[in-house]
Amino acid sequence: VAFVVCRSLEGLKTFSYLEELILDNNLLGNDLLLPRLPHLHTLTLNKNQISFQRNTCKILLDHLAEVVPSLQYLSLLGNIACPNELVCKEKDEDDYQRYRYFVLHKLPNLKFLDTRKVTRREREEALIRGAFMKVVKPK
């Protein structure tokens, strides 16, 4: 197993049967473009540069829904888009839960998000309100 810092994901298109992909610590942002990987069920994008700026995270999640239709496990820990009170004092558990509803609204087939299993209640809440969940607090 080799670990390298990725600057281009172009070569992944030759691995159409890939099932797991770990892209942690690669400075990847919301402009991440993956080739179609129909068998990919696990994707970790921890500690990259993914954020909720100008709806670009929505575009990224829509892209993932299209190109990795079998995705069941996604981890975005350590990104600005993933509010974590352990990393940022201004964030709390409510921020993290709103983030989960939004991601689950966009990727309803997920079974795990970050380190937690997706619950039936979360899935129902994501269907009802997920589109309106943005992690924004008044100043």
UniProtKB/TrEMBL annotation:
Pfam families: LRR_9
GO biological process: melanocyte differentiation
Name under which the protein is recorded: LRMDA protein
Source species taxonomy: Eukaryota, Metazoa, Chordata, Craniata, Vertebrata
